[in-house]
Amino acid sequence: MNAPKAKKIEKILEIHGDRRTDNYFWMNERENPEVTKYLEEENAYCDFMMKDTENFQQELFDEMKSRYKEDDQSLPYFFNKYWYIVRFEIGKEYPVFSRKFETLENEEEILLDVNILAEGQKFFEVGSVAVSMDNKLMTFSSDNMGRRIYTIQFKNLETGEILQDQIANTTGKAVWANDNRHIFYIRKDKNLRGFQVYMHELGTDSSQDILVFHEEDDTFDVNVFKSKSLEYIFISSSSTVSDEQRFIPADNVLAEWKIVQPRTKDLEYSVEHFEDEFYIITNADKATNFKIVKTKVSKPGIENWKDVIPHQKEVLLEGFEIFKNYLVLEERREGLLQIKIIDNKNNTSHYLPFSDPTYTAYIGLNLEFDTEKLRYGYTSLTKPSSTFEYDMKQKTTKLLKQQEVLGGKFFAENYISERIWAKARDGKKVPISLVYHKDTRKSAETPLLLYGYGSYGHTVDASFSNVRLSILDRGFIYAIAHIRGGEYLGREWYEDGKLLHKKNTFFDFIDAAKFLVDENYTSPKHLYAMGGSAGGLLVGAVVNYEPNLFNGIVAQVPFVDVVTTMLDEEIPLTTGEFDEWGNPKKKKYYDYMKSYSPYDNVEAKDYPNMLITTGLHDSQVQYWEPAKWTAKLRELKTDSNILLFKTDMSSGHGGASGRFESLKEDALEYAFLMKLEKII
Predict the structure, then answer these.
(1) pLDDT tens digit sequence for 27-81
(2) CA-to-CA distance for 403 and 599, rounded, in angstroms?
(3) Per the count of CB atoms within 10 A, which of 73, 189, 448, 568 is most buried?
(4) Among 371, 370, 498, 489, which residue's Cα sits nearest to residue 428?
C-alpha cells in the first residue's frame, strides 16, 4: 500500500510584505468530504503499516490494563455532612459518583452513573458535579463531542429525577449560591473562550438567565468559584499576564460585585478567604516568584496589601492552603516541590521530608478549616501516586491510599531514578529526570525516550506511570527534559522560554538530547522524542533543526502551524495566547514565529521516523494542523523512514473518553517505538 498523497491547492498568504504558499490550506474545511477522505486514507495507511504489530498492540493493551484495579475508587473526602467517592466497576469504562451520609459505614447513595449516560455514545465526558448546600440538588455537565463544550443539567437527589433545566454551551462548571436556588456558570463564545458569567434560577428557562459579567477583552478567560470558607463567590478574569477578581457574598446573589484589584498589565493574583481577610498570592512589587499578602475584605485593593510570605528570589511559590491555625505552602526550590508547614500560634515552621532524587509533591484536597490534618500527594518515577494524612501538630504521617499496580510484577526497588543536569548552549543548566529498570545498561545501544513540553509555565514533574512500565521493562530509559518555557526552575525559567525567547525551549531539548548521547545513555540510532500539544510543536521544531539526532518521534495533537493559527482570531484560544507566543500581526513576532514554526520550515531533507496523532474534534489544536504537516512532510522529505498519521474520528484534545480506551493510543505509540527498535 502506497502512502496517501494529498492534493495541492495553492493558497497565497500575505502579510508584512511576506508571501507564504500553503498548498494544504484547504484541509481546514471540516465539512469537506475530501478532507474526511484524506484523514481516512491516512488512518488506513497507518493501520496497514502497523499491521505487523496488531497482536503486540493487543498484548501491550492487555498488559497495561491488567495493572489497573478495575474496581478502584477515589479516596473519600468529607464535605457538608457527606463522604464523597468516585469509583469504577469491573468491566466498565466510566466512573460512578456516590456519597454516604456522615459515616463511611452508611448506605451508598449513587449520585451519577456515567456508564448509563454514555450508553450508545462514541465519546462521553462528565465535566463537573456540584451539590447544593442543602444536599438536595445536584448539577452535572456533559460533553459528547470532545470539544469541551458542556451542557449543564440538574438532578433532584431526593427523588432521583433529572429536572427540565438545561444549559448548553458552557465550560461545564456550576457554582451554587447558598440559597440552593441559583447557580453561576460560564458561557463560551464562538472561539470556545469562557467570556460570560450567567446566573440561573432553578425552574426557569435558560433563555431568562441573567448576565452577571461579560469579559470584552478577548485575551482574557473567565472562571467562577466559591471560597473554601463557602462565604464568597468569585469571578476571576485572567490573561497570560494579568488577573482581575470580583466577589459577592454567597448568601446574597443580588449583591453588587466588588473588584479586589482592577486589572493591571503584568499584575497576577489569586484570592482565598479566611475570617475577615483575603489571602492573596501575587507577583506585585516585582515578586517574580510570587509572594502572599493579606488584606481586609472591606478594603481589598492593592494599596492595603500587607506581606505575609515575602518574595524569595530562589524559591517559586506555587500555591498555599489556609487552616485555622496553620498556613501551608507549596514551594519549588531548584526544581523540586517542597511543602512547608507554618504554625500560626507559635510562629514556627518545618518542611515535610522527601527522599527521591526527583519527585512530585502537592497539597491535596483539604476542605476543612478547623483541623490539624493535612492531606498531601506524593509520587516519583519509581513510586506510585500516594495520598498521605499529616498531623501538623504531632508531626506524624499516615498513608491513606496508594495507587495499586496489579499483576504482581511491579517492585519499586527494580527501578532506578536519577536527576542530571545538561549544559545548554548559552551556559544554562537544564535538569533531566530519568527512570530505567535496574537491569538496563546505559550504552550506545540502549533505547531512550525523551519527553518534553516547555510552554505556558507548565511544569512536567517526575511522576509514576503504570503505562510507562511497558517500555521500561523492555529495556527503554525514559527521560523528561525540564526545559525553559516551563516553571521548573522558577518564573524566570518560564519567561526565558516564551515570546522572542521561544527558541530556548527547542535548543534546551536538543542540548539535553545531545548530553544524553555524550554521556553514553543512548545514541541517535536509539533516541526518540515525544511531546503533545505545545510539546508537539517542540518535537516538530526540533526535527527541523536536528533531523539526524533522533531515530523517531511521537507528536501527539501537535501545535505545528504556528503562524497561520496565531493570525486567525476565529480559531479557539488564539487571542488568549498572544502573551505566550506574540501577535504575528506585529512584524517582529511574525518573523520570529515563522523562523521556528514546524510547518513553515519543512524542507527537502531526511527526517526521522514519525508517528503523528490528532482528534477530529480537538478544541485546543485543530486537526488540520497535523494533517497539513503530514501532507507537507510526505511531499518534501527525502528519506524512506516511516511517517504515520492517525486521527481519532470521535475524540478531542484529551483523546478517547473511556477509562481504558485511551490505553489503545498508548499501545499504538509504544508499538511504534518498539517496532523501530525491533523489540517486537
Answers:
(1) 999 889 999 999 999 999 999 999 999 999 999 999 999 999 888 888 999 999 9
(2) 40
(3) 448
(4) 489
- What is the C-alpha separation between 88 and 71, in angstroms, rounded? 5
Residue in 209, 618, 648, 666 annotated catalytic: 618
Convert the pLDDT of each residue in 347-371 to its tens digit. Answer: 899 999 998 999 999 999 898 888 9
Contacts (Cβ under 8 Å, ≥6 apart) of 153: 139, 140, 141, 142, 162, 163, 165, 166
Beta bridge partners of 130: 139
Mean pLDDT, rounded, of the chain: 94
| CB neighbours of residue 276 within 10 Å | 8
Check if the beta carbon of residue 523 is closer than 8 Å to that of residue 586.
Answer: no
According to CATH, what is the number of the domain 38-65+409-676?
3.40.50.1820
pTM of the predicted model as reported, rounded to 2 decimal places: 0.89
In whole angstroms, what is the distance from residue 113 CA to residue 106 CA?
19
Output the pLDDT for position 572: 62
pLDDT confidence bin for 122, thresholds 50/70/90: confident
Sequence-distant (≥ 6) Cβ neighbours of residue 356 within 8 angstroms: 380, 381, 382, 383, 417, 462
Residue 574 has pLDDT above 90, yes or no: no
Burial class (CB in 10 A: 0-12, 13-18, 19+), 612: buried
> What is the arithmetic mean of pLDDT over 70-98?
91
Catalytic residue among 653, 657, 662, 666: 653
Mark whether 617 is an active-site residue: no
Q: Which of 533, 619, 651, 662 is catalytic?
A: 533
200 is an active site residue: no
Is 311 catalytic? The answer is no
**Which residues fall within 8 angstroms of residue 427, CB to CB, at 6 or more apart?**
none
For position 193, what pLDDT does the model report? 87
